[in-house]
Amino acid sequence: VQLVESGGGLVQPGGSLRLSCGASGFTFSRYYMYWHRQPPGKGLEWVSSIANDGTKTTYADSVKGRFTMSRDNAKNGVYLQMNSLKSEDTALYYCSTDPGGNTRGQGTQVTVSS
Q1: Residues above pLDDT 70, as percent of the chain
Q2: In sequence order, what are the beta bridge partners of 38?
Q3: Which residues make Cβ contacts (< 8 Å) with residue 13, sequence separation at least 6?
Q4: DSSP 55-103
Q5: How many Å apart are CA 35 and CA 48, to the nearest integer?
Q6: Which of 29, 55, 97, 105 could form a disulfide with 73 if both were Cys (CB 3.0 to 4.6 A apart)?
């Protein structure tokens, strides 16, 4: 399994970013996919999930209404559109193949600061 996240960066509060995750080494279309994040000095936390066919998404309360997760099974890609970003969204973001985030990539850093 290989997962490669990209799209992170420095953004001002209220701004937007779109994260991408490329997957390989497994039958992508058969798997639910997840985004997790790890804020500085804190543990890993679940952010969102998407069904294998993309028809169902769920979100942590802290991001609901601001973040949108999607996927493209033809491209083996999963995405996280993040709007109305807050300083507390600052974290290392990972995509993963399991709810616990145990199988994940190297992550992409998101920093929300003025």
Answers
A1: 100
A2: 92
A3: 85, 86, 87, 112, 113, 114
A4: S-EEE-TTTTTTEEEEEETTTTEEEEEE-S--GGG-EEEEEESSTT--S
A5: 5
A6: 29
Mean pLDDT of the chain: 97
Q: In whole angstroms, what separates CA 27 from the centre of its chain?
A: 19
**Do residues 97 and 106 touch, judged by C-beta distance below 8 A?**
no
CA dihedral 48, 88, 92, 45 (to 10 degrees): -40
For 2-31, the pLDDT digits (tens) are: 999 999 999 999 999 999 999 999 999 999
Cα(55)–Cα(7) distance, integer angstroms = 24
CA distance from start to end of the chain: 37
* Spatial distance between the Cα atoms of 53 and 11, rounded to a whole number of angstroms: 31
